[in-house]
Amino acid sequence: MMTKRKIILILGLYVLILTGIRMVGRRMSYMLNDLLDMNRLRESGIILYKRNLRLQGIASGVIDMLRFMTQGKPLQLINNIPDTFPYVIADENRMIQILFNLLHNAVKFTNEGRVTIRAAVATGHVRIFVEDTGIGMDEETLQIIFQPYEQGDSRITAIGGGMGSV
């Protein structure tokens, strides 16, 4: 016969498993949307829905989505964008997509230390910085980083668990 404590432990385990499944599903959805967006960009079919956004809040939400990737790692996710940061005018879905991709790669390739996001206003524009204590990129990778469907070193991306697309 199961005790009340065992039942609570089992239910807690199920909650953790379902949370993980939901997070993986969300990541897969973002990846599929990224691929669809690449096609739309080629065909000039993306429509941006710009509005005032709180960058700090969006960054916090993305960090929460990625926190499961830090389990078992001595890694801190730090949001250094202050609550008082000015609103930005942007498409919320695209902003989430960009921050998710930047922070996801930083977390994936950082085994210990920290991943930090910060922002600054410069001549009427916002600059977003993601800094980490990870393995970094060699000069060759830096040259191809913004080319679509390029793949980094497959030995490194296999360790990180990704497709290697940059």
Walk me through the structure.
With 166 residues, the chain is of the alpha+beta class. Helices cover 49% and strands 19% of the residues. It has helices at 4-42, 55-66, 92-108, 139-144, 154-160; strands at residues 50-53, 75-79, 88-91, 113-122, 125-132. The longest helix is centred in the first third of the chain and has 39 residues, at 4-42. It is globular.
Main beta-sheet strand count, sense and barrel state: 3 strands, mixed
List segments where confidence is low: pLDDT < 50 over at least 5 consecutive residues.
157-166
Quaternary state of the chains: single chain
How large is the radius of gyration? 18 Å
Number of E-state strands: 5
Helix content: 40-55%
Gap from first CA to last CA:
53 Å
- The helix/strand order is HEHEEHEEHH
Spatial arrangement of strands, main beta sheet: 2-4-5
Calculate the mean pLDDT score and round it: 82
Helix-and-strand structural type:
alpha+beta
Morphology: globular
Instruction: Determine the strand fraction and express it as a percent band.
Output: 15-25%
**Count of DSSP helices?**
5
Summarize the structure.
It is built from five helices and five strands, in the order H-E-H-E-E-H-E-E-H-H.
Task: Chart the SSEs and their pairings.
Blueprint: H1 4-42, E1 50-53, H2 55-66, E2 75-79, E3 88-91, H3 92-108, E4 113-122, E5 125-132, H4 139-144, H5 154-160
Parallel strand pairs: 2-4
Antiparallel strand pairs: 1-3, 4-5
Helix pairs in contact: 2-3
